[in-house]
Amino acid sequence: MTAESMNLIEFKKMFPGEDTAEKMYKLIERLYPICRSITGNGLRETLSEIQKHIPISVKEIPTGTKVFDWTVPKEWNINDAYIKNSKGERVIDFKASNLHVLSYSIPIQKKLSLNELKDHIYTLPDHPDWIPYRTSYYDEKWGFCMSQNQFSTLKEDDYEVCIDSRLEEGHLTYGEYVVQGRTRDEILISCHICHPSLCNDNLSGISLATFFAKYISRISNEHTYRFLFIPGTIGSITWLSLNEPDVSKIKHGLVIAGVGDSGKFHYKSSRRGDAEIDQASRNVLKHSGHEHEIVDFFPYGYDERQYCSPGFNLPVGCFGRTPHGQYPEYHTSADNLEFIRPVYLYESLLVCTAIAHAIDNNRYYMNQNPKCEPLLGKRGLYDKIGGGNEGQEKQLAMLWVLNFSDGNHSLLDISDRSGLDFELIKGVADLLVEYQLLNRKSERIPRGLPRG
Amino acid sequence: MTAESMNLIEFKKMFPGEDTAEKMYKLIERLYPICRSITGNGLRETLSEIQKHIPISVKEIPTGTKVFDWTVPKEWNINDAYIKNSKGERVIDFKASNLHVLSYSIPIQKKLSLNELKDHIYTLPDHPDWIPYRTSYYDEKWGFCMSQNQFSTLKEDDYEVCIDSRLEEGHLTYGEYVVQGRTRDEILISCHICHPSLCNDNLSGISLATFFAKYISRISNEHTYRFLFIPGTIGSITWLSLNEPDVSKIKHGLVIAGVGDSGKFHYKSSRRGDAEIDQASRNVLKHSGHEHEIVDFFPYGYDERQYCSPGFNLPVGCFGRTPHGQYPEYHTSADNLEFIRPVYLYESLLVCTAIAHAIDNNRYYMNQNPKCEPLLGKRGLYDKIGGGNEGQEKQLAMLWVLNFSDGNHSLLDISDRSGLDFELIKGVADLLVEYQLLNRKSERIPRGLPRG
Amino acid sequence: MTAESMNLIEFKKMFPGEDTAEKMYKLIERLYPICRSITGNGLRETLSEIQKHIPISVKEIPTGTKVFDWTVPKEWNINDAYIKNSKGERVIDFKASNLHVLSYSIPIQKKLSLNELKDHIYTLPDHPDWIPYRTSYYDEKWGFCMSQNQFSTLKEDDYEVCIDSRLEEGHLTYGEYVVQGRTRDEILISCHICHPSLCNDNLSGISLATFFAKYISRISNEHTYRFLFIPGTIGSITWLSLNEPDVSKIKHGLVIAGVGDSGKFHYKSSRRGDAEIDQASRNVLKHSGHEHEIVDFFPYGYDERQYCSPGFNLPVGCFGRTPHGQYPEYHTSADNLEFIRPVYLYESLLVCTAIAHAIDNNRYYMNQNPKCEPLLGKRGLYDKIGGGNEGQEKQLAMLWVLNFSDGNHSLLDISDRSGLDFELIKGVADLLVEYQLLNRKSERIPRGLPRG
Question: The pTM is what?
Answer without folding.
Answer: 0.93
